[in-house]
Predict the 3D structure of the following.
Amino acid sequence: MNNWDDMRVFLAVARAESLTGAAPVLQMDPATLSRRIARLEHALGAVLFVKSPQGYALTDLGERMRDRAAEAESHLSLAFDEGQGASAALSGQIRIGAPDGVANFLLPQVCAAIQADNRELEVQVLALPRVVNLSRREADMAITVSPPAAGRLSVDKITDYHLHLATRADEPAIETLADLRGRAIVGYIPDMIFDKELDYLGALGKQGVHLASNSVAVQLQMIRRAGVGIVHDFALPFAPELRRVLTDQISLTRSFYLVRHASDRQSDRLSRFADALTSGLQAEVVRLERIARLTGGALI
């Protein structure tokens, strides 16, 4: 490998597992990336990717090289932090991976406030209906609903949040669980629930749903039409026609965690951002849940 630019191209393709996925990250066209990868493999005298119509999969050598390159990238980031100085405004790019509920209803406000105080900072939100793979450096940090059980990761609890059953205010009254009969139940696609904390059917005593999506935002839109489902309290202010129901019988509490590479705790820049992100999320959950209680806390 001749220089850091070659490493940057290699890492981007390795993480995206395709040329088209890496192209916007590097601001290069796929044809140029293909030539760059071919030139790199020729210089090394080794194959780094298995190419197919499905994308670019790393060989065993490619995986080992990716891990080393990611480690070097982390050290370069720390060097950048030292040069930036602890008192300076944050700059550069920081990517956060998050479930789409957080990404849709919390992060836009929180990230906008952080960026307003750090004009040279670029904040990217990677919204995925799955756990973000930090080991592949898909993101600099991730928000999860369960603390990871393995990996060289640093985990800090951000805050608890609450969920309740909700439906349209103009729908027939729901005063008992029996009133759910005949209603369209909205929820996750069962075989696409990526975390056990997202399985809410037990609270409803139901075996399945009638309208399903792997996206919290889509579920909310389904409930807004004519359904009933478990909704994050912090999402309710974005759907004022909905009201919480059966709050004394169905009330769920879950938690958000901030997950980072353990080595990134040495980064003043990332740590300062993580602190701002955590405090911003805590305040935003409190603010939005208070609105939900004031406008949708009564039984219908």
The longest helix spans residues 268-296. The radius of gyration is 22 Å. The chain is about 40% helix and 25% strand.
